[in-house]
Amino acid sequence: FELEPDALDTIGPMTWRPDLQALPFSAHPLRDRDGSWWNFGALSMLGGTGLLLWHIGADARLIGADVLDLDTPGYLHAFVQTDRHLVFLLMPYDTAPAGSFFESMTFAPERACTVLVVDKAAPDRVARRFEVDFTMAYHFGDAFERDGEIVVRTMRLADVAQARSPHRAAMFGHHGPAAPAQLAELRLDMRRGQARWDMTGIGGIEFPMFDPRSPGDRGARLYMPTNAGDASAPYFNAVQMVDPATGRRELHRYGRDILAEEHVFIPRPGSTRPDDGWLVGTLLDHARDRSGIAVLDAQRIGDGPLATAWLPYAFPLGFHGHFAQAAA
Length: 328
Prior knowledge:
4% of the residues lie in helices and 42% in strands. It is built from three helices and 23 strands. A hairpin with an 8-residue loop joins β4 and β5. The mean pLDDT is 90.
């Protein structure tokens, strides 16, 4: 649906082409360096097995919509890109009618995941296909290519049953700690056709962000919410920077009663240096029934917010965001 950008009024449905009406369009599009956007649609949601690959121009016009054929359906929540390739991790599952989609599906950890690598220059076909040990993953960090190898960073969930429906208990009014996630690296040898997982030992993380200006031949620093110290609610209460290459972390804890959402990275205008910019994130102070927003220097997270603004009321927690530069 198209929205009026200032008042946020609904203009109406947006369809790029008549034959593409109502086809899946995931919540995790990726912006390329040229300003265009890549996205996928899982046709398994409609009873099929293919993967619809969208390419939308910086001017919001359709560049392409291609269907990649799959032998069997595989679940994916998000995907990742390098300068040259798109990478899709499909997790095997079985279905039996039992209500909602997630209630009807059961992941199959005894089977391997399928990894599809698509060349951006030829998005109508799969360039490389891999099999790798099953790993439960919803959200991805960055990816890069070097010496014939693609390295993909993702959040690995250890408890497959809990990951299948992480908010089911919360929907019934029960709460508990979120499923812990660890940072894993998927290594794809494009020359030999081999794939493997490497665990980084970095845990307690989710919803990673990074500076999109980061070089494409090495890993980026990751920014994400986390839990630190005493908390009065089963949710994130801090934001952190993690440098997987060195293991260095820097953290700011908002407080016992502050719930911190995913923080968006905003590049500093006029600068091309990676990580030169700000983190902007929304907050919920449930003890004082108010919501706010904080701005931090991405290179000095430990110093705390440069600015914080609070509303006199609270609004619900949300998921995911992008920064869009306002028109001059």
